[in-house]
Design goal:
mainly alpha; globular
């Protein structure tokens, strides 16, 4: 903060403060329920009181516990405080986590210059509350920002650290989807970190088995596979590929077609993520592209990806802003608008709340016209376009360097975060 230029930091702080004041007013009038926070607190109470964790139903919507027992144990401290206090504390905590995610995103991308990053962190913390996934995370009292910070913190550390992978394993123990990042580590050649993540996840399972054996047995043999506990696949709240398929095919169970489509995207997404990470010799910000592609793949292929699961829009937008900034710095004769246009279109999509504006009532969700389905499945479309943009970016950089397009066995050559930091010392290479 001491290195940051004072005037830009003062302007950014003023804008952020004004935005947060407006947000507080809007939050008051939309009657923020923080319903997920109430579920987490009930899970912690079930553990503390020895009740059946997966039999509980809370709030007017009769919401059940859906996370592994390890997560419920971490929620026990929330039972020590009244709900009124938790509303304030968790909101402030999530704002702090948004700032941390911004900082880790800048570190991952290696942009902008170090002294300018506090300005960016302040702006994202103040203005980022209007991004729909962040707004909804704050509204429901969700843990998405915490999980994202665990994963980004792990991935921005040196590959030489023996503990690399521990935070990813813990995140997967809380909510299974982050386990895909262990696969990302494995296919990008960081085998030790991948196994560390796997062993850490196994440790969370053993903790649950020892302390909550009945709940652990029930979760892994029954409740994990009961999608009705999580929610309906077809509603617009679900911004996964499977949800988009359900709405497109006008059925709550899109069946084999959706399974094949999701499987294809899973394989393609992981392949592109590995391709990006292993292209560090030619691709600036290769690790950032790999991580963001893996994150987008994870939320696309999950059976249920609520809109607030897309908080990965923060590092996505930072990465696209970096590409747009580099593009803008080129001489006018060779300058293009491609990345700037893509950045603004992506930002608009995450600010639009489009799925809520176009949301039909009740059973009408299964009878929408093709045109109306575009805004109600906006995040899957953005995610697929991002994967395509990654392919275009990698292909262009390899071709311009005369490099082979095929992935070379064992090739990483500067694809990790340490090398990405080193490349910041040679901006001409961009």
């Amino acid at each position: 903060m001491r290195e940051a230029p004072r005037r830009p930091l003062l302007v950014a702080s003023s804008l952020a403060l004004l935005s947060l004041v407006v947000y507080a007013v809007v939050r008051h009038f939309v009657h923020t329920s923080m319903v997920d926070m109430i579920v987490y607190r009930a899970e912690g109470a079930a553990v503390a009181n020895g009740n059946d964790l997966y039999a509980l139903r809370v709030t007017e919507w009769n919401l059940p516990a859906t996370y592994p027992p390890f997560a419920a144990m971490l929620f026990v401290p929330t039972t020590w405080f009244p709900i009124a206090f938790l509303r304030v504390a968790i909101t402030l905590g999530n704002l702090g986590l948004l700032a941390l995610m911004a900082h880790l995103s800048f570190k991952l991308v290696g942009w902008p210059r170090r002294e300018l990053r506090p300005v960016g962190v302040v702006l994202i913390t103040g203005l980022g509350v209007w991004l729909e996934p962040v707004f909804t995370t704050l509204r429901y009292g969700q843990i998405n920002l915490a999980l994202g910070c665990l994963i980004l913190w792990d991935l921005t550390r040196s590959d030489g650290r023996r503990s690399k992978g521990v935070a990813i394993g813990i995140a997967a123990g809380i909510k299974l989807t982050p386990g895909l990042f262990a696969v990302y580590l494995l296919i990008t050649g960081r085998v030790r970190a991948a196994f560390t993540a796997g062993l850490t996840f196994l440790g969370t399972f053993l903790i649950g088995t020892l302390l909550l054996p009945d709940a652990t047995w029930g979760f892994w043999t029954k409740y994990l596979y009961d999608s009705s506990r999580v929610g309906k696949t077809e509603i617009v709240d679900n911004q996964s590929l499977r949800g988009a398929f359900a709405r497109l095919l006008h059925t709550p169970d899109p069946g084999v077609i959706a399974t094949l489509g999701v499987g294809l995207v899973a394989v393609a997404g992981l392949a592109v993520a590995a391709w990006a990470a292993r292209s560090g010799r030619w691709l600036p910000r290769s690790e950032a592209w790999g991580v963001c592609v893996a994150a987008v793949t994870a939320v696309l292929i999950s059976p249920i990806s609520w809109t607030h699961h897309w908080v990965w829009c923060v590092p996505m937008l930072v990465l696209l802003a970096a590409e747009a900034s580099v593009e803008h710095a080129r001489p006018a004769a060779v300058r293009r608008l491609r990345w700037r246009a893509f950045f603004w279109a992506t930002l608009l999509a995450f600010l639009s709340f489009a799925m809520w504006a176009a949301k039909p009532l009740g059973a009408a969700v299964l009878h929408m016209s093709p045109l109306r389905q575009l805004p109600t499945s906006i995040y899957p479309w953005v995610g697929l376009c991002f994967l395509l943009a990654a392919v275009v970016r990698i292909t262009a950089r390899r071709r311009s360097a005369g490099a082979p397009l095929a992935l070379l066995p064992g090739q990483r050559d500067g694809g990790g975060p340490d090398a990405a930091r080193g490349r910041q010392q040679a901006p001409a290479a961009r």
